[in-house]
Structures are given as structure tokens and as C-alpha cells.
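Revision sheet: C-alpha cells.
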Amino acid sequence: MKLKDKVAGVTGSARGLGWEIAHAFAEEGAKVIICDLDQTNVEQAVTRLDVPLDRALGVRADVSVEQDVLLINRCKSTCYPVVAGVVSTYAKESNKDEAG
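Predicted:
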């Protein structure tokens, strides 16, 4: 396990690319912080990781909202004081009508 005792936070990780990244980190032994917009999806993703509860943390957060980012940081520092890395898979949808 290459990442044993390391911590990785992954935003947008309840599904898609973010989920695949979080899952890969967990398979390599990392403790994983799952962050996404929907609480139900976050809880399901943590369950799907199929790791002991001390190796997974789920946080409902919108990284475009400052208070949510502060919440993620508080959770990280409280639960996992040493974080090896954070991966952001956040992507804002653009409105083609706004492009100039």
C-alpha cells in the first residue's frame, strides 16, 4: 500500500472522475475525504469505498462557496491533521450566452 497513513481530499468525488480518484487513493491505503454537493451522494460514496470508517470521511460541500471550503478545512484539520494532498475535480458549467 503505497499511500498507507497518507490523507487525500478529493472534491467532486461522489461520482465520476472524482470518485475514481478517491477510490484509487483508498485502494492504495490512503485515508480519503469525499467532498461533493449532495449529502446522500457523499454518504453513498463513503459506503462504496468499503474501508473502515476511520479511513473515510464524507463532507457535503460546494467549493464555490467560501464557508463550505472553510468547513472542509476544519474537517481535515480535526479528523486528519496531516493531509498529503487535495485533488479538486470541480468544474463550473459555463453559459455559452455569457461568453464574449
